[in-house]
Design brief:
The protein has 50 residues and is of the alpha+beta class. The protein is built from one helix and three strands. It is elongated.
């Protein structure tokens, strides 16, 4: 079983929104600002798992 990660995710929590960054093993990064409603959080989950 490998413990190496393909990507990591950091989340900065604010009062009304989140700032999320995903970094992969090649050094590519993606940043997204997400509101804290249920629909946006479910979309965030899908974005992180993709």
């Amino acid at each position: 079983m490998s413990t190496e990660k393909r990507k990591v995710c950091g989340i900065d929590v604010h009062k009304f929104f989140l700032v999320v960054m995903i970094l992969d093993r090649e050094g590519n990064s993606q940043t997204k600002r997400v509101s804290q409603d249920l629909e946006s959080l479910l979309g965030l989950r899908e974005w992180i798992l993709f």
